[in-house]
Amino acid sequence: MKLRTIKTTAITFILLGLAVMALVLVVSESFQGIVAISGLIIVVIGWLILLFFWKCPYCHTHLPFAGSLGMKVCPYCGNDLEL
Ligand SMILES: [Zn+2]
Fold first, then answer.
1. Between the chain's N and C termini, which has fewer beta carbons within 10 Å?
2. Cα 19 to middle of ligand 1, angstroms
3. pTM above 0.85, yes or no
4. How far apart are CA 38 and CA 69, in angstroms?
């Protein structure tokens, strides 16, 4: 899987999970627990995608999360990440 696809998928899951968690503010009290847990699970899936697949395709080292927004080359081997 391409690194760009992994990044887009993980960010989508995290933002979707946060949006679902924000629904806690508008749903009735009886659904708040299930909505909050569902949102949390979706966020965790996004983080797990980053944890397991956010690696350099060349040296297979885990890439840092911080500063990944503008990252163009691997900070460890220097190869182009094609992001
Ligand atoms: Zn690398």
1. N
2. 33
3. no
4. 27
